[in-house]
Amino acid sequence: MKQPRYETVTLEKIVGGGQALGTLSDGRKCFVWGGLPDETVTFRVTKKKAHFVEGIVTEVLHASPERIAPRDADSYLSTSPWQIMTFSAEQNYKTTLIKEAFELHNVVLPHKIDVYTDRRKFQYRNKVEFSWFSERAGESYPDTLDLAFFRRGSKGKIIVNECSLLPPEVIALAHSVRDILRRKHISARQLKTLLIRSNQQGSCVWQLYIKDRLADAITHEEAEALPAQGGEIIYSDPRSPASRITARLAKFGDTTLTDMILGTPFRYACEGFFQVNIPVYEQALRDMREWVSRESSYWQLKHRQKKSEQQGTNSQHGSSNSFSEGFAFPAKARQERQLNQLAARRPEEKDVCEAGEPTLDFYAGVGTIGLTIGGGNVTLVEINADAVREMQRNITELGCTDARAVLAPSEQALDYITGKEIVIVDPPRAGLHTDVIATLLQKLPPRIIYLSCNPVTQARDVSLLQEKYEIMHHQGYNFFPRTPHIEHLVILDNK
């Protein structure tokens, strides 16, 4: 068996992937989990390449003043590796990562970067996917069975009983499913994953993905006793990725959840895409909604503010909702105060399907963006068939006669970009398809609302769009506290 290799290094900064960066004595860069800038650490090498290595901290020789004890001491690296830093440090690093992403692509953001947070650091996540772990106890005894997460940087697993990112009802349901399977002596070799979702009211649904066709792994009587409104047993081909549905073997109760988003009810399935942090997502939607109408007072005031800044007015961006611990924001200019006053006076919610600007929503998921902030003529494009089915159901139940769902990859739905509608995009981490960018630059819709889970690819795309567009507004959102992930909004207007 190959002996593990250890290195000692002083770390320099946090980089885009979430690791801390250092330089070894031989000049190679190292990317390390579990460390912070200015710390001297010993780490175990998990990957070695010619020009860099990756690793996980095993000992902190000199600790940063930003270091705190992680709440999930055994498993935090698997789920939320930034539990080791203060929350103000997390906000600061996320601000820096956005800044560096746009600097990398030579994009100048028009005002200071602000990262919104509702200050909730734990129990915010409404979805989890557990793996399983069994330890062979010998021929005379059955295997053990435990919930598990994959270890970061290796193929191994770590047993988990708690996770601070999850609400207690999700943990309770996971334990209940595990206990049923334990009593039946089912081992991890027969299972794939356990997927659980909860809504804001605490109702849960579950899906048990199995490698063997064990339709009776959980009976109807056992399912009814679980603290959940419904669940499924799903056969997933062992050769396929985790949580890939091959066949639905059994269904119990109601397997769809309903959540209110800006006063609008949305239904979604356990396996479907849905935002995991609804309160912060709602704030992003409120901010985007202010830019859907080109004729709104909010937009006109913002436009005047931008012109004043170009003429030398020292107007700075700020937000009364932002987390400001550890930050020094300049005083707001008079126009910014007017902007905030206007925002405070606006109705908190609106009727869905309200008449307004034609809206095209690419990468639409189940329609939560387009159906809450879009105008009266909304086209929603999504590649996932299950999501489109849920989207169509939401359109029907909401009575949105002017909304239509389109099942297609965005790059194959380019005819819907006519140049007359406001375009909303919320792509995966890879960013916009090149054909989408080319069509936007050709058709020149008046405004692009770009929400991204990856500032690096967003900055790349914005750098290309700046040929014909200018940045009117931008805002960060801490959707995933205690992790390196961050959402960023950019509003682009046709020059």
Describe the structure.
By secondary structure, the protein is an alpha/beta fold. The chain folds into 3 domains: 6-67, Nucleic acid-binding proteins (OB fold (Dihydrolipoamide Acetyltransferase, E2P), Beta Barrel); 92-120 and 277-494, Vaccinia Virus protein VP39 (Rossmann fold), CATH 3.40.50.150; 127-258, Beta Barrel (OB fold (Dihydrolipoamide Acetyltransferase, E2P)), CATH 2.40.50. The chain has 11 helices and 22 strands. An 8-stranded mixed sheet has the order 6-21-22-20-19-16-17-18, with helices on both faces. β17, α9 and β18 form a beta-alpha-beta unit. The chain is globular, with a radius of gyration of 24 Å. 41% of the residues are buried. Mean pLDDT is 88; it is low at 313-353.
Please state how the strands of the largest beta sheet are arranged side by side. Answer: 6-21-22-20-19-16-17-18
- How many distinct helices? 11
Strand count, sense and barrel status of the largest sheet are: 8 strands, mixed
- CATH architectural category of the largest domain: 3-Layer(aba) Sandwich
Mean pLDDT: 88
CATH fold-level assignment of the largest domain: Rossmann fold
Helical residues, percent: 10-25%
The proportion of strand residues reads 25-35%
Classified in CATH, the superfamily of the largest domain is: Vaccinia Virus protein VP39
| CATH classification class of the largest domain | Alpha Beta
What's the Cα radius of gyration? Answer: 24 Å
Tally of separate domains? 3
Distance between the termini: 62 Å
Q: Find the count of extended strands (DSSP E, 2+ residues).
A: 22
Structural class: alpha/beta
> Stretches where pLDDT falls below 50 for ≥5 residues?
313-353
Tell the overall outline.
globular
